[in-house]
Amino acid sequence: NVSDGKVKIGVLADMGGVYADICGKGCVTAIEMAVEDFGGTVLGAPIEIVSADDQLKPDVGSAIVRKWVENEQVDAVGGLVSSAVVGAATKVTTEAKKIALISTAASNAFTTKQCSPYNVHWTYNVVALANGTVKPMVDAGKKKWFFITADYAFGHALEGVATKVIQENGGEVVGAARAPLGTTDFSSYILQAQSSGADVVALANAGGDTVNSLKAASEFGLTQMMDVAGLLVFTPNAQAMDANTAGGMRTTTGFYWDYDDQTRAWSKRFMERHGDIPAMGHAGAYSMTMHYLKAIEAAGTDESDAVIKKMKEMKPDDFFSRNATLRSDGRMVHDMYYVEIKKPEERRDNNDIFKVVSVIPGDQAFAPVLPECDFK
Amino acid sequence: MSTYGEKLRIDDLHAFYGESHILHGIDMNIMQGELVTLLGRNGAGRSTTLRAIMNMVGRRTGSININGNETINMPAHKIAHLGLGYCPEERGIFSSLNVEENLLLPPAVRSDGMSVEELYEMFPNLYERRYSQGTRLSGGEQQMLALARILRSGANILLLDEITEGLAPVIVQKLGEVLIKLKERGLTILLVEQNFRFAAPIADRHYVMEHGHIVEEIQANELEAKTELLNTYLGV
Amino acid sequence: MSADYVLETRNLVKEFKGFTAVDDVNLQVTRGNIHALIGPNGAGKTTVFNLLTKFLIPTTGQILFNGRDITPMKPAAIARAGVVRSFQISAVFPHLTVLENVRIALQRKEGNSFHFWRPQNVLNKLNDRAVELLDSVGLAEFADAQTVDLSYGRKRALEIATTLALEPELMLLDEPTQGMGHEDVGLVADLIKKVSEGRTILMVEHNLHVVSKLADRITVLQRGAILTEGDYATVSADPRVREAYMGTAASEEQDRANEQAARDAAAAEETQA
Amino acid sequence: MMKVNKLYVALLVLAVVAPFFLYPVFLAKLLCFALFACAFNLMLGYVGLLSFGHAAFLGTGGYITGWLMMNSGMTPELAIILGTVAAGALGAVFGKLSVKREGIYFAMVTLALAQLVFFIYLQAPFTGGEDGMQGVPRGNLFGFIDLSDNMNMYYFVLAVFLIGFWVIHRTIHSPFGQVLKAIRENEARAVSLGYNVNDYKWVAFTISAALAGLAGSTKTLVFQLASLTDVHWHMSGEVVLMTLVGGVGTILGPVVGAGVIVTMQNYLSGGELGNYVHIIMGFIFVICVLAFRSGIVGELQKMWKRNFG
Amino acid sequence: MATFLGINLFGLFGQLLVGLINGSFYALLSLGLAIIFGLLKIINFAQGAMYMLGAFAAWMALNYFGINYWAALVIVPLVVGFVGILMERFLIRPIANEDHLYSLLLTFGVALILQGLFTHLYGSSGMSYTIPDALRGGTKLPFMYLPDYRLWIICASVVVCGLTWWMIEKTKLGAYLRAGTENPQLMQAFGINVPLIVTLTFGFGVGLAGLAGVMAAPIYSVSPDMGSNILIVVFAIVVIGGMGSIGGAILTGLGMGVIEGLTKYFYPEASNTVIFLVMVIVLLVKPAGLFGKEA
Ligand SMILES: Nc1ncnc2c1ncn2[C@@H]1O[C@H](COP(=O)(O)OP(=O)(O)OP(=O)(O)O)[C@@H](O)[C@H]1O
Ligand SMILES: Nc1ncnc2c1ncn2[C@@H]1O[C@H](COP(=O)(O)OP(=O)(O)OP(=O)(O)O)[C@@H](O)[C@H]1O
Ligand SMILES: [Mg+2]
Ligand SMILES: [Mg+2]
C-alpha cells in the first residue's frame, strides 16, 4: 500500500556553503547507504532519493520542499541542516502532511515552539549541547561566563539555553558579544571577553565562526587567561582548528566515529564512500532513515500518519542510537558524549580528534516533552 | 624619384572606423622641411588621415612610410618615436594633470625640442596658469598647450589638426610666425586647416580632399591660378 | 539708464582659487540686438557665459534678466525663464529623429512631461509646429531622419531650431561657427541673422567676419574686464583692441573690410535714396 | 506593429495555458522575477543608470506585504499595494540621494544604500533575521478567492505581472518616456532645454522601485516567505544578469532573461549540479559580456534586422 | 580598571587599536580597488576573489610546496598579479571600449566563478594557516595584549600604501598612468605603450589584493567566501573616500576601521551597518566623497 508506487525521500542540505562538510553531500551518501542496507525496496516498492542544495537560504529550501511535496510526490524530507532553512521547510512539510527527518539542525524549536506531529529531530539539539558542555564546567567551579554568540536565531537559542543551565547551577553570565554570522575578525569580541573578568568564554556559534573565534582567542592570549568552551564543534571544524590552541577544549557531540567497534565499522564504510570521517549529522541521517523505512515496513503503508505513529512506537537501536527512544514530540533521545579535543601529541592521525570524557544519558541531556507538543 | 629627404610617404591608404570606410586610397608624400596643408570640407577625412598616420583609426591598409620605415603594421606607441608629433583636433588636454604636467608629459622623441622657458615665452598665458588643472584652461589656452606640448618633445615631423581653431587673431598671427620658424629649422609639417587665409601664405603645397580621396594637389605658386577650382572644392 | 536692457550684469566677479577670471563686469544687452563678446584667449568670455547660465556660480555680483534678479536661479530654471544657451560642441539627441529633437523642446511647455501614464501620441499635436521650425532652418525634408546621420552644419541648424522652439527671449551662442568650413560658416551666420528677428542674441565668436557681419554691438573683454564697447567700426579701430586681440595682419585686413563695408553702406544708402 | 501585437497575444495565450503543463508555483516565481527584471530594466535600459541596489525594493515589498498578511488580517491585494507603496517610498528616498550621480558612481551609491537596508532588515525584529519571515498566509483575494490554491495563485500573479508590464510599457511610450530618452541621449542638452533632469530620473527610479516592490510583494505571497535573500546584494546582481541575458533596453528582454535564469537555477539547485550554480552563473555573466552584450532578445532583433529589415 | 564617564577606557583603547589594525587591512584592499577604478575606470568586483586567491595561494604554497610565509609574501602577490594580468589581457581588454558597466559585470562573473571553484575544491569550512614563528607572541600593553603579527600588519600596510600613493601621485610614471587612462589613444600617439601600462596597473592593483590575502591568511581562516564578505565594505570605503582618490582610499580605510572598532564597543549590533551609514551621510554632504573631485 504505497502511494504512487514508490517511496521517495528528498535530501535537503547545504551542499556548497559553510555547513556543506557537516551534512551536505555526506548526508546524501549516508541516506543512500541506509536505503541500500535496507535493500532498495520497501513493501515491494522502490525507494528513491532526490537531493537538493538549499544554499543555506530559507527561501530556496522552502521552495524546493514545496516543489517536492506538491509536484514530485516526495514522502519524507531528510538532511535538514541550518535551523533557518529547517524552520521554513518544516512549515511546508507540516502543511502537506509529510515527514521531516531532521538530522543536523541545532535549534530545539522543532520539538518545542514550532513543533509538529510530522517533525522528527534526531541527532542533537542546543539543549543537549548546553547540558552536556556547560553543566560539568559550572559544577567544576567555573562560575562566571562570557558568551561570544552568533547573532542569529541559532546563536541566540544556544546562548539562551546555556544561560539557563549556568544560572540553574549557580553560575552567572557576566556579558555577551553578538557577532554577525560569518564574522572573520573576532578580535574586538575577544577583547571584550578579556576585560569581562569571566572564568569561561563560551562560543555560541558554529562552523567557520567557531574556528575563527578560537583562532583570535589564541592570538590575543585569551586561551592562556581563561577557559574557552565551544558549545557546538563538529568534527570537520575541529579538524580545521589549530591543534595547539584547540587541544584540551571540551564540547558535546551526539556521535563520535571512533567510540566503539560498532561506530568504527559503520564509519569505515562511510569513509570509503565519502572520503572523510562522518560527522554526527551523517550518522544521524543514516540511523533516522533506517528507522523511517523500518516503520513503513511495519506499518504496511507509506501514509505519513501511520508511519510516524510506528516510528514513535518502535525503539531506535543501532550503532548511533544508544538507549534511545523517539518521543511523542518527535525528539529522539539518546546518549550524548562529552568529549575533549585531543592535543597534537595525543593524535594518531588527522582523524583522531576527540577523546570521550563521559557519556551523558539522554534524559539528562534533553529537556522533557512540552504538553502542547505531546502528539500521540 | 629619389627618396632622399622624403620624410613621409603614403601609398593607397584606406582607413576604417568599424564598418565605415573613411579613406579610399590616399597617396601623398612630404619632403623634409616642407609645410603641406590638407584642405577640404567638414568630414572630408582630413583628421582621419592624420589619425591614420598615427594608427589611431579602427583599421588601416596600404602603406605609410615614415623616415624610411614602413609603419602600417607598427603598434601606435612606436610611431611617435620615429619623430612624429601629433596635435589632435580636440586638443586632448588631460584633466588629471596640471598645465605644467601636461606640458612635460609627452616623452622626448628627439633631443632638440624647444625648452619649457622658450614655450612659456611664446605662450605667456600658459606660464601664468601653469599650476591650474589642464582642462580648466580656456578653449584657446588649451589649444596653445596642445601645440606647445609637442614642440617640446622634439618631434621633427608635425601633424597639426586645426591649430588655429578658437584662437584670437593675434595668436593666430604669432602661430604663423612660429610655423615659419620651425620650417626654417628643417621640421616637416603636415597641417590640416580650415582657416585658408592662415595656411595659404606659409604652405609649400596643398592637398585637397573630398570624400576620403585626394582630389587635387596644388603648389604654392599655382594658388593664384587655381583659386576658382579651390573655391568649388571648399565652397568658399 | 533708461534703455531697454534684456540682460544686465552688475559688478559680476568670478574667482577661481585666487585667480580672477571675470573681474567686475557690467554688461548691458539691449533688446533686439545681436551682441558679440570678443576678446583674447582666456579673457573670460566662456566664463561669463557659464555665469549667465548658472553652470558656474558668481563669486559676487548680480545678473538681471528683464530687470529681475536671476542670480540665485538654477540652470534649468534659467532656461525656462527664457535664457537659452547653445553649446560649443554640437548638442543634439543623436538617436532621436530630427523631428523628435525639436519636439522635446516644444514638449516642455506642454506641462505633460511627467505624465508617464499617457500615450506618447499626445505629443503628435506638436508636430506641425516642429515642422514649421525645421522649415525655418531649412531642415523640413530631414524631419524623419536619424539625427546622427546629419552633417555637421545641419546638426548646428537643428540645434538652433531646437533652441528656437523654446522661444527664448535671449539666446546665448558660444562660438557658433567654430570648426566649420566656409560654406557652413556662411550658412550659420545667415541663420543667426534670420532668427535674431524678435529676440536678442549674445554670442562669443572669434571669426571676425561673422562678428562684423552680424553684431550690432560688441563688448571686448580682456583679462576678465571690459576693455571697450561699441559697434564694429569703433571697436576695430581701437588700438588697444588691435594690440590685444586682432593683431596687425588681421587689423590691416580689417581696415580693408571696414572701408569696403563703409562703401557698401554708402552705396546701399544711395540706392535707397 | 501588427507583428508585435501578434507576438504579445501569442505570449499571453502561452501564459494562460502554461500552468496546465508546468508546476504553477514555478511559473509564478518566473513571472515575479520577470516583473522584477522589467522594473530594473526601466532604469538601466531606458534611463541608462545601472542600479546595483534593486534588491532593497524587492525585499521591502516582500517584508511589508508579509508582515501585513501575518499581523493585520488584510486581504492580499491590499497588502500587496501597501508593499508596493512602501518600496516606492524607499525608492523615492534612494533616488533623491543617488540620481545626481552617474554610471559607476550611481551603481555604487545604490549598492551601498541597499546594503544599509540589508543590515536594517537583518537586525529588525519583525523580519525574523536570518530565519526570514516564515509562514506568511496567502489569504483570500478580495476576501473570497482562495489563494492557497496554486492555480488561483498563478492567475493572480499573471494579472499582477500584466499590470506591471503594462505600466512599464506605458511609461516608456509616454511623454515622460520621451524626455527620459532625450536625457539618456544628451543630458547637458536636456538641461539647457529647461528640463530638471534629476527630477525625471528620480520619478523613473521611484516607478522602477515601486514595481520591483510589487514583484517582491507578490513573490512573498507565492512562497509564503520573505527572506534576506531578496535584499542581499547577490539578488541585485542576479537581476542585472537576467536583464543582460535577455537584452538590456528591450521590453521583452528581461522577461526572457528571467525565464532563462530562473529555469536554470531551478534545474541546477534540484540536481547534481547544485554545487556549480555560482560557477555557471559566473560563466554566463562572462560570456554574455564578452560575446552577447545585446542579450537574447537583442541578438534576435539584430538577426531579424539583418535578414528582413 | 580605568574608567571615564562610566566608559572602560582600557577597553576603549583596545578597540581603537584593533580598529586601526582592521583599518590597515581595509586601506590595503581599498587601495587596490581605488587604483584600478581611479586609473582604469574599472570596478573590479573580482578584487575580493583575488584577496581570497591570495590567501589560498599562501596556504597552497605552504602545504603543497613548503614555501613559508615570508617567501609567500613576495611570491603570492606576483602570482595573483599575474592572474590579474591574464584577466585584463584576455577578458577586460576586449571590452575596454564598451561602457564601463560591462567590466563591472564581467568581473562580477569572474568573482562568482573563482568563489564557486574554490568552494568546490576546498569546501567552505576554511583552512587554517599558522602565524609565522618570528611573529608569534605579542606585547603586553597596559590596556591590552597586542599580538606581534597585528603590529606587523599595521606597519607593512602603512608602508605599502604610502609607497604606492607616492608612486602614483608624485612620479612621472604616475603621470603617464593618469593621463593614459584619460585618453589612451593620444598617449599612444605620444609614444607611450598604454596597453602595457594598463595591464601592469591592473596586475599591480590585483597584486595588492593578493598581498592582503597573504597577510590575512594567518589571522582569518582561509575560506572561499572571505573575499565576498569584505568586498562590499571595501567598496563603501572607496565611495566614502571619493572614487578614484588614492589617498582618500587609504585614509578612509584606516578611519573606517577605527569607526567600526568604536561601534563594536558602544553598539555592536550596528557594527556592520555603520560604514554604510557613514557613506550615506558623506554622500549627502559631499556627493563626490571625502577626497573626491566633483565630476
Ligand atoms: N570615430 C569615428 N567613428 C566613425 N566615423 C567617424 C569617426 N570619426 C570620424 N568619422 C567620420 O569620418 C569622416 C571623416 O571625418 P574627419 O574627422 O576625418 O573629417 P575632417 O575632414 O577632419 O572634417 P572636420 O572639419 O569635421 O574635422 C566623417 O564622415 C566622420 O563622420
Ligand atoms: N574652472 C576653472 N578653474 C580655474 N581657472 C579657470 C576655470 N575656468 C576658467 N579658468 C580660467 O579663467 C580664464 C578665462 O577662461 P574662459 O574660458 O572664460 O576664457 P575665454 O575668454 O572663453 O577664452 P577662449 O577664447 O580661449 O575660449 C582662463 O585663464 C582660464 O584658465
Ligand atoms: Mg577634422
Ligand atoms: Mg571660450
> Any low-confidence stretches of chain E, pLDDT <50, length ≥5?
none
Q: Mean pLDDT of chain D, as a whole number?
A: 88
Largest sheet of chain D: 2 strands, antiparallel
List the quaternary state of the chains.
heteropentamer
Number of helices of chain E: 11
Helix percentage of chain D: over 70%
Structural class of chain D: mainly alpha
What is the count of β-strands of chain E? 4
Q: Structural class, judged by helices and strands of chain E? A: mainly alpha
CATH architecture of chain E: Orthogonal Bundle
**Topology, number of strands of chain D:** 4
Cofactors and ligands present?
A: adenosine-5'-triphosphate, magnesium ion
Short précis:
The complex is a heteropentamer of chains A (about 375), B (about 240), C (about 270), D (about 300) and E (about 300). Chain A is of the alpha/beta class.
Structural features, described:
The complex is a heteropentamer of chains A (376), B (236), C (273), D (309) and E (295). By secondary structure, chain A is an alpha/beta fold. Chain A has helices at 24-38, 58-71, 83-95, 126-139, 153-168, 187-194, 207-219, 222-225, 235-240, 243-246, 261-274, 280-299, 304-313, 362-365, and strands at residues 7-13, 41-42, 45-53, 76-79, 99-102, 119-121, 144-150, 172-179, 200-204, 227-230, 250-253, 325-326, 332-333, 336-341, 354-360. In chain A, the strands form 4 sheets. Chain A has a 6-stranded mixed sheet with strand order 2-3-1-4-5-6, with helices on both faces. A 4-stranded parallel sheet of chain A has the order 8-7-9-10, with helices on both faces. In chain A, helix 1 (24-38) packs parallel to helix 12, helix 2 runs parallel beside helix 3 and helix 12 (280-299) crosses helix 13 (304-313). Chain A is globular and about 65 Å long. The model of chain A has no long low-confidence stretch (mean pLDDT 90). Chain C has 273 residues and is of the alpha/beta class. Chain C folds into 2 domains: 1-82 and 168-267, Rossmann fold; 92-167, no CATH class. Chain C is built from 9 helices and 11 strands. In chain C, helix 3 packs across helix 4 (127-136), helix 3 (98-110) runs parallel beside helix 5 and helix 5 (152-165) runs parallel beside helix 6. Chain C starts with a strand and ends with a helix. The mean pLDDT of chain C is 82. Chain D has a domain at 24-232. In chain D, 74% of the residues lie in helices and 3% in strands. In chain D, the strands form 2 sheets. A two-stranded antiparallel ribbon of chain D has the order 1-4. In chain D, strands 2-3 form a two-stranded antiparallel sheet. In chain D, helix 2 (24-46) packs parallel to helix 6, helix 2 packs across helix 11 (253-270) and helix 10 (233-246) packs across helix 11 (253-270). Chain D is globular. The two termini of chain D are 14 Å apart. The relative contact order of chain D is 0.18. The mean pLDDT of chain D is 88. Chain E has 295 residues and is mostly helical. Chain E is built from 11 helices and 4 strands. Chain E has helices at residues 9-40, 47-65, 69-92, 100-122, 148-170, 172-182, 184-189, 194-216, 226-241, 246-266, 274-285, and strands spanning 3-4, 7-8, 138-140, 145-147. In chain E, the strands form 2 sheets. A two-stranded antiparallel ribbon of chain E has the order 1-2. A two-stranded antiparallel ribbon of chain E has the order 3-4. Chain E is globular and about 60 Å long. The model of chain E has no long low-confidence stretch (mean pLDDT 86). Classes of the chains: A alpha/beta (376), B alpha/beta (236), C alpha/beta (273), D mainly alpha (309), E mainly alpha (295). At the D-E interface, helix 5, helix 10 and helix 12 of D face helix 4, helix 9 and helix 11 of E. Bound molecules: adenosine-5'-triphosphate (2 copies) and magnesium ion (2 copies). One adenosine-5'-triphosphate (ATP) sits between chains C (16, 19, 21, 39, 41-47) and B (129, 132, 136-141, 166).
